[in-house]
Amino acid sequence: MDFTPIEVVPAACDGAASCRVCEGREARLAFVKSGYELYRCAACDFIFVHPFPSDAAIAAYYATAYRGAAPGFYPKSRSRRWRAFIRSLHFFRHVRGRDVLDLGCGGGFMVEAFARLGARAEGIDISRNSIDYARGRFPAQRFYCESLSDFTQRGKKYDFVFSSEVLEHLPGPGEFMRTLAAIVRPGGFVYLSAPDAGHARVPADISTWDDVCPPEHLEFFNARNLALLFARHGFAPYRRYRTKDPAHSVVFRNMG
Ligand SMILES: [Zn+2]
Q1: pTM of the model
Q2: How far apart are CA 104 and CA 71, in angstroms?
Q3: What separation in Å is there between the alpha carbon of 149 and the centre of ligand 1?
Q4: Separation of 202 CA from ligand 1 center, angstroms?
Q5: All domains in the chain, ordered by first residue
Q6: How confident is the model at residue 4 (pLDDT cuts 50, 70, 90)?
């Protein structure tokens, strides 16, 4: 496998690396897990795999090792559909009559749930198997299978973007944030769910945390550096849901 880093950030002589959140150069090796080095920024506490695996290595991983590798991999689709419907109700006022995108839509269950609430809902996912499934299962909805950069080129705009369990999989937050800044209308909203490195239930020795599982999860935010990241792209915190599990469940608003 080719592990050439993308978005290359060369390590300085002193072993420090640049932080993708605060852009300081104070990130240093914190621990090693599964052969991957994890760095922590001394300025903002952002934790990330460094160097990030290449796009090719990540693609190879998801094509072979990940649970999404097999076609038709959505067992218990009935209960998935039901859970998606229950979850969608939290967002009723954000989605009814609105243009909605599930960014990282997987099998399309949330897209269908939002559509049932009266949204013009679409989904995008990088996984071909997921999108094949979603298109077959929910033919009334529109699904895209392409990179975020390619998708942004379409010039589409949304009132509400839902993204659950996506950000932590990405090799850096840059493309994700540029996409949000481009596709969320001024005054529009983003819902984000991702592991929360600052949650009270994260083990004191963070290297033992289940969510630290490279190359699947590559970057870890706490509430403060997540808000900083979004602020740098024009978003302000709007609402934070309390969670039992160590996860962010948060809505940001595009203040542009
Ligand atoms: Zn930082």
Answers
A1: 0.92
A2: 17
A3: 24
A4: 20
A5: 75-254 (3.40.50.150)
A6: very low
